[in-house]
């Protein structure tokens, strides 16, 4: 599979080409990923499922430009992010990607609204526009009345919704979610996956969800199973 010509349009949001990640060196090194190849098309909803230690979180970190591969390349909207300088990587992450993590990664001393505004603050968006955008997003997720509440006073499900709202603050084309339901009960898991579906079907976001939960994985359009650092199978679900 050839790398895309950057001057040509591509229908792939994400491409992994011969992707590998090794930690350490010599006899004590560990291979986390090896020869991983796949792509996610624009507007697709894909889940990556695998047991603990399978390499799925390592893969998400590479696809999200949070880490660099040992071998191979990652393309985000046709841009090879594998070798970009850190300053350029930060721009790609903030402009094109939204992240949702299992442990929420919210700033505990801030309110829900302030957490959602944070990516906009980093981008230098004026205060009034930040506040408008945060309110709009929190209203969408049913948290408008709790915008001024400290996130530590919210339930787990509410905090995860704040995290999703924050991921959308800069209107990214791609949402990457690492075990977004891992700390949620059954009811809130269902609510969260319905939100993920809405991001995809109503807002047109490309959504990639990492999970160990088969029921969560089956909510996507396509499932990629990973084991021992390699793709084991792919399955179209819808």
Descriptive report:
- This protein is of the alpha/beta class.
- The protein has one domain (12-236): P-loop containing nucleotide triphosphate hydrolases (Rossmann fold).
- Helices cover 32% and strands 28% of the residues.
- The chain has 7 helices and 10 strands.
- It has helices at residues 56-63, 86-96, 112-122, 127-140, 156-167, 186-201, 214-217; strands at 12-23, 30-41, 45-49, 71-76, 79-80, 97-101, 174-178, 206-211, 222-227, 230-236.
- Helix 6 (186-201) links the parallel strand 7 (174-178) and strand 8 (206-211).
- Helix 3 crosses helix 4 and helix 3 packs parallel to helix 5.
- The model is unreliable at 1-9 (pLDDT under 50).
Q: Architecture, according to CATH?
A: 3-Layer(aba) Sandwich
Q: So what's the overall shape?
A: globular
CATH superfamily: P-loop containing nucleotide triphosphate hydrolases
Number of strands: 10
Mean of residue pLDDT? 92
Main beta sheet: strand number and arrangement?
6 strands, mixed
Which radius of gyration do the C-alpha atoms yield?
18 Å
Note the total helix count.
Answer: 7
Give a summary of the structure in a few sentences.
By secondary structure, the chain is an alpha/beta fold.
Features of this protein?
alpha/beta, 28% strand, disordered N terminus, 238 residues, Rossmann fold, 4-stranded antiparallel beta sheet, 7 helices
Secondary structure elements and pairings:
Elements: E1 12-23, E2 30-41, E3 45-49, H1 56-63, E4 71-76, E5 79-80, H2 86-96, E6 97-101, H3 112-122, H4 127-140, H5 156-167, E7 174-178, H6 186-201, E8 206-211, H7 214-217, E9 222-227, E10 230-236
Parallel strand pairs: 3-8, 3-9, 6-7, 7-8
Antiparallel strand pairs: 1-2, 1-4, 4-5, 9-10
């Amino acid at each position: 599979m050839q790398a895309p010509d950057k001057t040509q349009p591509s229908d792939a949001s994400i491409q992994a080409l011969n992707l590998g990640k090794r930690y350490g060196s010599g006899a004590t090194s560990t291979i986390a990923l090896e020869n991983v190849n796949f792509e996610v098309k624009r507007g697709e909803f894909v889940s990556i499922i695998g047991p603990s230690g399978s390499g799925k979180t390592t893969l998400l970190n590479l696809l999200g430009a949070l880490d660099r591969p040992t071998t191979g390349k990652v393309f985000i909207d046709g841009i090879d992010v594998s070798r970009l300088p850190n300053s350029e990587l930060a721009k790609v992450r903030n402009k094109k990607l939204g992240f949702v993590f299992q442990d929420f990664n919210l700033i505990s001393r801030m309110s829900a609204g302030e957490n959602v505004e944070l990516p906009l603050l980093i981008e230098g968006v004026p205060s009034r526009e930040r506040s408008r955008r945060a309110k709009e997003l929190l209203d969408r997720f049913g948290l408008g009345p709790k915008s001024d509440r400290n996130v530590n006073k919210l339930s787990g499900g509410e905090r995860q919704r704040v995290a999703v709202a924050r991921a959308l603050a800069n209107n990214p084309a791609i949402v990457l979610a690492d075990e977004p339901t891992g700390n949620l009960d059954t009811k809130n898991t269902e609510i969260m996956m319905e939100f993920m579906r809405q991001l995809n079907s109503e807002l047109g976001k490309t959504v990639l969800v990492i999970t160990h939960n088969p029921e969560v994985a089956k909510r996507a359009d396509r499932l990629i199973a990973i084991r021992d650092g390699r793709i084991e199978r792919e399955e179209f679900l819808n």
